[in-house]
Specification:
Layout (H helix, E strand, L loop, with lengths): L2 H11 L12 E4 L9 E4 L4 H9 L4 E4 L16 H11 L3 E4 L1 H6 L4 H8 L15 E9 L3 H10 L13 E9 L16 E13 L3 H11 L2
Parallel strand pairs: 2-3, 3-4
Antiparallel strand pairs: 1-4, 5-7, 6-7
Amino acid sequence: MIVQDIIQQLETLAPLAYAEEFDNVGLLVGDKNTKVSGVLVTLDTLPEVVDEAIANNCNLIVSFHPIIFKGLKSITGKTYVERVVQKALKNDICIFAIHTALDNAFKGVNATICDALELKHKSILIPQQGTLKKLSTFVPTAQADALRSALFEVGGGAVGNYNNCSFNSKGLGTFKGNEHSNPVLGSPNEMKVVEETKIEIVFEKHLEVVLLKTLKENHP
């Protein structure tokens, strides 16, 4: 397992796209392709925490607060932040911060506190705006079901308590490929009229990369 594998799992709980604009979350120190020997979880990445990671052969520190909040102009060991970064780099230790991404996560820090207090009427005080996006694509109707299912499988079309949500409209699509084209239907330099379905799916913005990848892999 590499660092990126751990990050992907953490992002299923707390997508980094939900972090506040002022924050500095994600992999702050190290290489995402590093093979993980052990993980140490902490509130703050203090010098003593790095020492503990070294002693326990943990080369990935997952911290709530980011050790690097603003840009560093030098790494000379003058401040504890610089000393942490120096020692982490010297010992090939990666540091990942999650902070407000976890604060804003649906089942994150605040949700856990509410559950611990056994609160009954819970709602988000300041909901984030603009977390939803829409994907629109055209596909031959014969392949529409398969493409829709693939997009749903990776989280597209999930809205609140509902999933597999989409809007579909049928029509006629036209295209004519040039001599360098390789169309699934028809031949180069041939005008085609095909019955197509327009699929529209709403998704959370942190899923954009995986949805576009799935679309490219499954569209005929």
